[in-house]
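Appendix B. Chain record.
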Amino acid sequence: MKSYRKELLFNTKTRRAFINITPQVEAALRESGIKEGLCLVNAMHITASVFINDNESGLHRDFERWLEKLAPEKPYDQYDHNGYEDNADAHLKRSVMGREVVVAVTDGRLDFGTWEQIFYGEFDGMRNKRVLVKIIGE
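Structure tokens predicted for this chain:
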């Protein structure tokens, strides 16, 4: 069995963002040479997320509104965590959206359902962050 590891780097210009990272993950899969196996993609920060959904801008705005209702950024003093950093809401948003995804690799391709894409969700941006792509298989 082969193993391949790659880190994707992000530094968003905004505090929150949704970025379609499917092309970068597909490029890593091609680089790996693996044809059958599994591809793990995970955020390496506790205020960022990786998830699978539809690449539709209206849905992304819906996520933003929904998450802001669940865990509003402000007022900062509503959270016990806030002190050194004012990012408690980002931790909560990440918990809802998830840490990682695993996608089957079949015949050298990500084995997606219709409309599925991989997204990086940033909830406390404007600094360097990493996403791990780990592919195992033959």
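Further analysis of this model is presented in Appendix C.
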